[in-house]
Amino acid sequence: MRTLVIGDIHGCSVALRTLLDAVRPGPEDVLITLGDYVDRGPDSKGVIDILIGLESTTQLKPLTGNHEILFLEAFAERIDPQGWLRVGGAETLISYSGDPSKISFAAVSKEHLNFLSERCLRYYEDAKHFYVHANANSVYALADQNDDWLFWTRFSDAFPHVSGKTMICGHSAQKSGLPAVRPFAICIDTWIYGQGWLTCLEVETGAIYQANEKGELRTLNLAELDVISDTSTQNIKLPALPGS
Fold this sequence. Notes:
CATH architecture: 4-Layer Sandwich
Number of strands: 11
Number of domains: 1
């Protein structure tokens, strides 16, 4: 059994398929996805279709991200939809309608809404690690965390957790394209919707698989990354892409 963790996907279905083809999660594997499946990228609908398909082929543990919260709040008219549309929601609705001139919540299927609202988790944990979308208050148990910490707080505010477990999270885009590593926490949001990569970490071995929207794949290992105190700087020489 492997524990595989995938960072923020943001509608980038090509990169997600490329990663899944590389790691091939099976029935015995636990696959944790850290949220932010929708918004900004071109194919939020396709990403959720893939995740729903994975529920029957592997032990999927999908977490909620802040962009899923915005999507559901806008759908229910609890927030101004225009605000959500400006932070990537427009791209999400276009992926459902297929026509930029006819974006509408009516195109979103009940199956997708049910997946996002009923089957996504606030957090997940195992013996040595815990997994959250954004962060966790270091002095509270995971069951007692509030939404601000789990879905909105940046990685720069992370501190060692009272449980002694290592936190693995997303949310804070690492524009270097590399995971940010601290002695007690790892952030694997590597800016796929920008010019970065989608990251999958194999927890037991430290193997890192990264794919982009061009369908390119590269690999490295957690041990190759510097443990840092400032998430803005890392020093690592990556292998060249195949064919480059």
